[in-house]
Amino acid sequence: MKTKIYGIPNCGSVKKARTFFEDNHIDYDFHDYKKLGVSQESLEKWCNEFGWENVLNRKGLTWRGLDETVKIEIKDAISAIKLMKDNTSAIKRPVLESDKGNSVGFDEKQYEKLYL
Questions:
Q1: What is the value of pTM for the model shown?
Q2: pLDDT tens-digit profile of 36-47?
Q3: Is 11 one of the annotated active-site residues of the chain?
Q4: Exposed/middle/buried for 89, CB within 10 Å: 0-12, 13-18, 19+?
Q5: Which of 40, 46, 57, 59 is the most exposed place for a label (fewest CB within 10 A)?
Q6: InterPro entries from the xrefs (predicted)?
Q7: Which residue is catalytic, options 11, 56, 83, 84?
Q8: CB-based contacts of 87: which residues, under 8 Å, 6+ apart?
């Protein structure tokens, strides 16, 4: 399985991840979930693997721009997945899937451990 990077192209963390792969000549596929969306199954899988609290990006502009009543309603994986499905920018980026392991967020040391 070729590594798949999920994210949006203008995100700084996604750019760092793509640069890491390109600089190290590692082949990957890029899934732009701003254009292509993200499946319910992928969100459920990521939340099960990493915990919904780690998949939901609470530091980004999308989260900060949400109405407080919406934020208060996010209490579990089901409510977080619904929000992330409707607002893909609320997903922490990048999400990587590969045979060598999956990860969420940019972590160069972890990438080195997995891919080099």
A1: 0.92
A2: 999 999 999 999
A3: yes
A4: middle
A5: 59
A6: Arsenate_reductase-like (IPR006660), Thioredoxin-like_sf (IPR036249), Tscrpt_reg_Spx/MgsR (IPR006504)
A7: 11
A8: 62, 66
Assigned token pair, 86: 């409707």
pLDDT digits (tens, 9 = 90+) for 87-112: 999 999 999 999 998 999 999 999 99
Q: What are the structure tokens assigned to 104, written together?
A: 């969420």
Cα–Cα distances in Å, from 107 out to 5, 17, 115? 13, 8, 12
Query: Read out DSSP for the chain?
Result: --EEEEE-TT-HHHHHHHHHHHHTT--EEEEETTTS---HHHHHHHHHHH-HHHHB-SSSHHHHHS-HHHHHH--SHHHHHHHHHH-GGGB-S-EEE-TT--EES--HHHHHHHH-
Q: How far, CA to CA in Å, does 25 sit from each of 3, 19, 116? A: 12, 10, 10
Nearest to residue 66, comparing CAs of 48, 45, 49, 83? 83
